[in-house]
Design brief:
The protein folds into three domains: 6-240 and 473-488, Lipoxygenase-1 (Sandwich), CATH 2.60.60.30; 281-365, Sandwich (Jelly Rolls), CATH 2.60.120.380; 375-462, Sandwich (Jelly Rolls), CATH 2.60.120. The protein is built from two helices and 28 strands. It has helices at residues 149-156, 481-488, and strands at residues 6-9, 13-19, 23-29, 41-42, 54-60, 65-71, 81-87, 100-104, 110-115, 124-133, 136-146, 281-286, 289-293, 299-307, 313-318, 324-331, 337-344, 350-355, 359-365, 371-372, 378-381, 384-388, 393-399, 404-411, 425-431, 434-440, 445-452, 455-461. The longest helix is centred in the N-terminal third of the chain and has 8 residues, at 149-156.
Length: 493
């Protein structure tokens, strides 16, 4: 990509590499183009956003590469843009060799890359941004720099940067008044992506993405009266058309071949890396139909179906002979909603037979977009696909339906073929309202609620640390926001 270019990226957790030996930070902005407060700044002193959606990892030893993880499925609804910022303490950005930013999908596929070739005397720069568009996310190569460094950049995005304390004065003069103590920083409660997507009847409008969870109340901030303009203004991108319904494949390659993942540290809590990555496919319709999706990566995917109606709902895969294959849905529930696990054949062509009474919305999603299990309760209804990425834990289930509850576990440790699934273990097979506790092995594990006609709640208990070591021995906690203020005061000239 060149400066000003933009492209859609899959709505999955992305790993971003920033090269060139620069300091790296991220700013999370609302629709107003400003942060809500200091908590929306992710940098070396506060490397994890309170929502958990953005994490900064240290420099890869000897390479000058810094890694930033952005879980797009977990970004709060109030956040419209995530800026990737580079800065330098010594010299200017024109002295940074190989300054670039590149985004990788969980399977290692490069989905966007931008090399900065025109850096000048700036000491801080917005290298790239991820922003919402037409129900998905796009990556833009920005390359906008500030001659007055991070202080100027921060002010332009709504951060209240305090002035430097006055220089020492001779003893004969009155010493300056002491600065007021900083406001204690409080971490908002962790927010998890919603477990389900409300149904939307088919219209002529483009398909909509799931609504995002509302962000917690942030630390109040004040906008300074004086705003310093940036050293340069990036070209304005033309208005973007809605996401087409047709499936889009990033970085085409041979079928069944998984590109190598990016070099660098792995997160202490490993993110989801199993299965292909692709932009969501969405289709709407009414009553019975045959659904065909071309060009998918072979292997397991998540199918999401919402129907407005009170009749019978059935969903089957179709074989290469156009015969009914696996039965994925068999329900008489009114206004059916559910997520199912399905296998895309080696030719990348998924065909399904749908029996429905009324309008419906159908989506194909990568496994990485499924809901993560945690110690915070998830509440939903109908069949679902859940992901467990932590250490050994107990899964507490409260099922409030009247029919079958069937839960399968797919343990992926040691299973290296992303085009197939290992054999499953049946964890629950009961009828009627139930409270169940299921022991889970260390992740990664797919928890497939194959049948659940009714509402349910789920959460992890007795969660143990993951046995895989952290890349640098630990993940640093969010620290006192005073460090962020000190970092932002570096007004280099």
């Amino acid at each position: 990509m060149i400066k000003g270019d933009n492209a859609f990226v899959p709505t999955v957790p992305l790993r971003i590499a920033v090269r060139g030996g620069v300091d790296v930070a991220a700013l999370l902005l609302t629709e107003t183009g400003r942060v809500r407060g200091d908590a929306d700044i992710v940098f070396h002193g506060a490397p994890v956003h309170p929502s958990g959606a953005v994490r900064l990892f240290g420099e890869e030893s000897g390479t000058g590469t810094v890694w930033l993880d952005t879980g797009l499925t977990a970004v709060e609804g109030q956040i419209a843009r995530v800026l990737v910022v580079g800065s330098t303490d010594n010299g200017a950005l024109r002295d940074a060799r190989g300054l670039s930013v590149e985004a990788f999908a969980p399977d290692g596929t490069s989905v966007a890359a931008y090399e900065v070739t025109d850096a000048g005397g700036e000491t801080a720069m917005v290298l790239a941004e991820l922003y919402r568009r037409a129900g998905g996310w796009k990556f833009r190569a920005v390359g906008q720099g500030w001659l007055n460094g991070l202080a100027g950049l921060a002010r332009d995005y709504g951060v209240d940067v305090a002035d430097e304390p006055p220089a020492p004065v001779p003893a004969a003069h009155q010493p300056p008044a002491p600065a007021p103590p900083p406001v204690p920083f409080q971490v908002p409660p962790q927010v998890h992506p919603p477990a389900s997507v409300p149904f939307q009847a088919p219209t002529s409008a483009p398909p909509q993405a799931p609504p995002q969870v509302q962000a917690p109340t942030s630390v109040p901030f004040q906008v300074p009266p004086q705003v310093h303009p940036p050293a340069s203004v990036p070209p304005q991108a033309p208005p973007q058309a809605p996401v087409p319904v047709a499936y889009q494949v990033p970085a085409p390659g041979p079928a069944g071949v998984t590109p190598p993942g990016p070099a660098g540290p792995q997160p202490g809590l490993p993110d989801w890396t199993f299965g292909g990555v692709f932009p969501p496919y969405t289709q709407t319709g009414r009553d019975n139909d045959v659904i065909t999706v071309e060009g998918l990566p072979p292997g397991p995917v998540v199918l999401e179906l919402d129907i407005r109606g009170d009749g019978y709902t059935g969903l089957w895969t179709l074989t290469r002979l156009n015969k009914e294959g696996e039965n994925l849905v068999n329900s008489t529930e009114e206004n059916f909603h559910g997520r199912m696990l399905a296998q895309v054949p080696g030719n990348g062509r998924l065909r399904l037979k749908l029996h429905a009474e009324g309008p419906w919305q159908f989506q194909v999603l990568p496994l990485a977009a499924a809901t993560r299990l945690s110690e915070q309760e998830v509440e939903s209804r109908g069949p679902d696909v859940l992901l467990h990425t932590g250490g050994a834990a107990d899964l507490a289930l409260h099922y409030r339906g009247d029919d079958n509850l069937i839960v399968h576990l797919y343990e992926l440790d040691g299973h290296d073929d992303p085009t197939t699934l290992p054999s499953y273990e049946n964890a629950v097979n009961e009828i009627g309202k139930r409270r169940e506790t299921v022991p889970l092995p260390e992740g990664p594990v797919i928890v497939h609620m194959e049948m659940a006609d009714g509402s349910w709640r789920a959460r992890l208990k007795h969660l143990q640390p993951h046995s895989r070591p952290f890349s640098d021995g630990h993940v640093a906690p969010v620290t006192d926001i005073g460090k962020a203020q000190g970092w932002l005061r570096r007004g280099r000239r």
